Amino acid sequence: MKKNYFTQFDTIRFLAMLGIILYHYLTHRVSGGFLGVDIFLVLSGYLVTSQMESKYQADIDEGSYFKKTWERMRKVWWPMVIITMVGLTYLLLFRQQLLVNIGINLTTSLLFVNNWQQILSGSSYFANMLHPSLTTHYWYIAVYMQFMVIWPLFFKVSRRFTKTKWQSGLVMLAAALLSGILMAIVFTPGEDPSRVYYGTDTRFFSIALGGAAAQLLDMDQLATWLKDRVGRFHHFIVDAVLLGLLAILTYGMLHMLDAATFTYYGGMFGFDLLAAVTIALLTYEGSWVGFLLKFKPLRWLGQRTFHMYLWYYPINVLFHMVPTSQNGFTNSIWPQVILIIVLSCLSYALLEEKRWPVPVFNEVRNNQPLRLFTKVRNLFKEPAPWLTRILFIAFALVFLGGVSAVAVSKPADNVTVEEQQAAEQAKKIEELNKQRAEQEKQADASLSTYKKNLSEASLGFYQGIPDEQARFAYQLSVTFIGDSLMVGESEGLYTLYPNAIVDAAVGRQLYTLIGYPASLDAQGMLKDVVLVDLGANGGFTSAQLSDFLDEIGREKTIFLVNTHVDRPWADDVNKTLAEAASDDSDTIYLLDWHEYYSNHEEASTWLSQDGVHFNPDGGQVWLQFITNGMYEVLKKEY
Fold it and tell me: For 197-215, how does the pLDDT look when each residue is reduced to its tens digit (9 = 90+)?
């Protein structure tokens, strides 16, 4: 039977995992790192299909379908349980505010339907600032296990109704095309792409392309064909193609955007197609690229990538995405990356290699019945290694902590309050934008007349705003561009600035807005005064900010508001904004909200429970701050 495992794939797994980790830590620099998941799926499709085809050709009975499916699930399930329990115990001890909706999230994760639970609940993978959860990343494991149930059946059907391996591959390629088309149909430009990102149906093309590559790209035939034409230099041709493909894939992982229309209108499909071809070519005998990827340290790390995947998101959430005390560990990503790798190696040794067997939890059962109480009694009654006893107690405490965390977690109806509020505010923005004509009519009246038509709640936005600044805001024609912080204050902005355009979205990051100012300008929504408040969700480079300001137009008056968020990227964001304002001080002005916030002892009372977004009091202070800041610069003109 033909060999269907190649050690160079372990290195590919590690590099893909590194891309995923860096995407979550350095999104603005490795914006396409999320495509590492696609590489995993394509590789799985290739290997599983190669294995099944080899057995089909050799007429080997694969055994019970349900037995093999159960074995796959069990291999994935137990490490998920252990590592999740560790994370929940940590939350119980140190971060109880994150114990929200744990029951449903944990249940759907362990049943491998987490992706559809997140779809049905409206959760967004790309707005994790609003709903940090230790189980969000289990969407991929759910999709993977669903494919491991579906794909063997799909393979058997395709081989039953096709005569050759080539025809089977064409069927798989057709299925991949249908899935890619479905992704493009379901995706709506400008809206959150989580539905198509999570969907088993819209991600089916990843595993199907891997399977198609296994069926259509025969390396033995390719070697024969190349040897006949180029002789002994045939492997150099393959290596040149491989280097080109790897360069393209690397570029995609560095630059493709998770919310871009291109990504879901064929960009991800094209990436997966090239990944499938790359994976097939890496099996070409004599390839130097394939040989170099067999580097033992990388292969060793690649064998532990599943455990890295289980650990990376909890570490990222706990020490990077949610407010925490800033120190050398939380301010730098590399200690956290090292921690992820170390924990992965330890859990792999404990749960996969079983280097330190512990009764009940990770021992080799040898098909013997599980006698829980007998094993526990014998462990402490008879002589046993001290490490075994310590590990048993640690396991027991972790399970006790995890179960307790589930018990005290908030119910489902309390989940993601901030996300629900942001969604409601986003709808208000849409409604107010549709009422622009009426707003402009109101703005033609005097301020006093305008105020008479406002509700009592709307009049509250004038609290703390001096009369001269209120008149200034009433007359000012300005475009506000922001993220969820601005979404929450959109009603106040529209009230104080009836001539304003408020363009804000949940989860928005500056590096994703390439070409966006031009789109606003084409719609007549880019005024001569622009206020930008971005940076709460992640960092951006000086070049990205410069390009963004160029697109707005440096001849306009631009106000940059820096950020107060207690996150590792905040200092870099604020420094980058300050440098941009100092470089072009005639038209670009920094509104130093961070300094203003830091100089007020009561500032912590301005934030909602998540420690990022404003409560009503904080929102009003922010409105006062930006109004005063713009007034001080522009008051001579009004």
Answer: 999 999 999 999 999 999 9
